[in-house]
Amino acid sequence: MPHHPHSRASTAARSHIIELLQDDHRRLKRAYREFQRLDADRDGSLCESIVRRTLQEMRVHAQLEDELIYPLMRPIVSDPERVDEAEVEHEVMTLLIAQLEHANAADDKFSARFAVLCEYLLHHIKEEEGELFPQLKRATLDWESVCDEFTGRREALLAAEARDPLSTMPDAPPTDETGLLLSSHRPAHHPARYPAHESGSITSRKI
Ligand SMILES: [Fe+2]
Questions:
Q1: Which residues are near ligand 1, the ion (C-beta closer than 5 Å)?
Q2: Residue 172 lies in a domain
Q3: Which residues of the chain have pLDDT under 50?
Q4: Handedness of CA 28, 174, 79, 204 (dihedral sign)
Q5: Domain range holding 34?
Q6: pTM of the model
Q7: Which residue of 58, 97, 130, 157 has the smallest Cβ count within 10 Å?
Q8: 175 alpha carbon to ligand 1 midpoint, in Å?
Q9: Total domains in the fold of the chain
């Protein structure tokens, strides 16, 4: 039976997706606050475990947004350039995440890199919650199907991270010799590292 886009179930499915994304945002912000209270020299292993956990959550969250949420938003939002900006922000964050992956608390600039990543993330969250999510909340879509795909993909990514951290890590965007991000890059999906997924399929379900 086809899902009805205006049904109570559809509204509940939409709320569920947005709540999951906002829960991620809250958890990430809390982890950053926790990190700020610590001293990387004195509390090295605790700092490292916060960073590891946060990077893992960021990877899953950004991957879900890149694969499912942004393609869905692009035709809906009044200003699709905001979606482009959010994608570029993810690219920059991927770069910082890659630098932190194998770092430990004793490394030069460990705290600075994580702090910059989190400050960047705070800005990104503000844009999403302030500008993009409100428009998503007004969109009429087959939210039940979107929610099924979103939650299924989320489970798969979380399971992949639990089995093998870094498995959901997109290749770091290429940089030129000065370390500047090459602007033409879009994160490439790496078929060998990703659980099977038909990307973009939910965009066709827009009604
Ligand atoms: Fe987000």
A1: 128
A2: no
A3: 179, 183-207
A4: negative
A5: 8-166
A6: 0.78
A7: 130
A8: 24
A9: 1
